Amino acid sequence: MNWIDICDITDIPLRGARIVKSSMGCVAVFRTTEDEVFATSDRCPHKGGPLSEGIVHGKSVTCPLHNWVFDLETGVAQGADEGQIATFATQVVDGRVLLDATNIMTALAAE
């Protein structure tokens, strides 16, 4: 894996997100109440809403535009909605958030 150190875990608000910009698009990096960190594409497949501005609850995020809910582990839409967002591997080491950049360009180019 190609790990990139992106920030300290405290730089991401609890139940919030930060953006990592790449040449292919933005990645939203979320932090849950339990200090788990997840990374997904920042665009909702429904209407392109910025997921980084959504509400984080449990291990899910709700799109701020039309309330679609996505599982942060799998990227799959929940409930009656259909669709999926790209997810990317993360890890926290000594309080630093690391993002695996290996698949970011491929996944974001496919959206």
Provide the descriptors you would attach to this structure in a database record:
111 residues, mainly beta, four-stranded antiparallel beta sheet, three-stranded antiparallel beta sheet, 10 strands, globular
Structural notes for this entry:
- It is a single chain.
- This protein is mostly beta strands and 111 residues long.
- It has one helix at 104-110; strands at 3-8, 16-22, 25-31, 37-41, 55-57, 60-62, 69-71, 87-88, 90-93, 96-100.
- It starts with a strand and ends with a helix.
Give the class from helix and strand content and strand pairing.
mainly beta
Mean pLDDT: 92
Secondary structure: number of strands: 10
| Count of discrete alpha- or pi-helical segments spanning 4 or more residues | 1
Distance from N terminus to C terminus (CA atoms, Å) equals 22 Å
Strand content: 35-45%
Strand order of the largest sheet: 2-3-4-8
Question: Strand count, sense and closure of the main sheet?
Answer: 4 strands, antiparallel
Order of helices and strands: EEEEEEEEEEH
Helix content: under 10%
The rough form would be described as globular
Radius of gyration: 13 Å
Poorly predicted tracts of residues:
none
